[in-house]
Specification:
This protein is mainly alpha-helical. Helix content is 41%, strand content 9%. Among the domains are: 28-160, no CATH class; 189-226, no CATH class. It has helices spanning 3-7, 28-40, 48-54, 63-74, 87-93, 100-110, 113-121, 129-139, 144-160, 229-242, and strands spanning 206-212, 218-224, 245-248, 253-256.
């Protein structure tokens, strides 16, 4: 086989891991307790390091801390760029309507695509933990142990949200309610490039940059052509709390999650 033929091979799939940034790895009840703590400790405008220390973690690179942050964002309870609580979180903690709390719980589950898909396909059916775990293993690069953990998180979370009936089947659910009043709108994203297509034009005064990563992955950002040293520092700090970062050192390894 020639080198050219080898280069045309399909890219190698990522090796399965015990963790993922695409699913919550802490259940909804745990994250509600975590978010309640942020609110009660008045940490919504604090820095991430201060939040971590307030919960007994010495650094923001602590795996349990970042997995809580990641899960809280998956459930739509804190901002995508800090510890500020979303309107959805406040609807649960300080409901101003009779159905605000239940609606917030509903949206926590249905706002996660993989959870919403499972809920919709299992209405009126009993939840089988092994089947859920197998589905996660096939859809995400997870080990058996990692998928089993995520499956337990799913079942516990839908129970907290009131989706499970007395016989442990998924009952009737309502579609996610758009939160038009929330100030936590996601940042605009660059449209994906279709196979064989070209990168979409950048916004006026900006340029689209691509950084190649390992295993044929890449990071694409749309940014101003000129940027200050201060802004570079902010961008670096933002990336460290938004992306999944694996720190490999001789003495320790930290899995830093959104």
């Amino acid at each position: 086989m020639s080198d050219n033929d080898q280069n045309k091979k399909a890219p190698t799939k990522p090796a399965p891991k015990d963790y993922t940034s695409e699913l919550p790895m802490f259940d909804l009840a745990t994250i509600i307790e975590f978010v309640t703590g942020i609110h009660e400790k008045a940490l919504e405008t604090a820095s991430m390091i201060d939040v971590a220390k307030a919960f007994g973690y010495s650094a923001t690179s602590s795996t349990p801390f970042y997995r809580r942050i990641l899960a809280a964002r998956h459930f739509g309870l804190i901002s995508s760029q800090g510890p500020e609580l979303t309107k959805q979180a406040l609807d649960y903690l300080k409901p101003d309507a009779e159905d605000a709390k239940s609606r917030a719980l509903n949206n926590c589950i249905m706002g996660i695509p993989a959870f919403a898909e499972l809920v919709q396909s299992h209405q009126g059916k009993r939840i089988n933990l092994d089947i859920v775990a197998n589905g996660f293993m096939r859809k995400f690069p997870l080990t058996k142990a990692g998928a089993a953990l995520c499956a337990r998180v799913f079942v516990s979370s839908v129970r907290t949200a009131g989706f499970l009936t007395q016989d442990q089947t998924i009952g009737t659910i309502t579609p996610i309610t758009p939160d038009g009043d929330s100030g936590d709108q996601p940042p605009p994203t660059v449209p994906p490039v279709k196979p064989g297509g070209q990168t979409p034009p950048a916004l006026p005064g900006t340029h689209t940059y691509e950084l190649p990563l390992a295993n044929q992955r890449k990071v694409t950002i749309n940014a101003p052509i000129d940027i200050t040293e201060n802004e570079i520092s902010r961008l670096k700090a933002w990336a460290e709390v938004t992306l999944l970062v694996e720190w490999h050192e001789k003495a320790a390894k930290f899995d830093v999650v959104q």
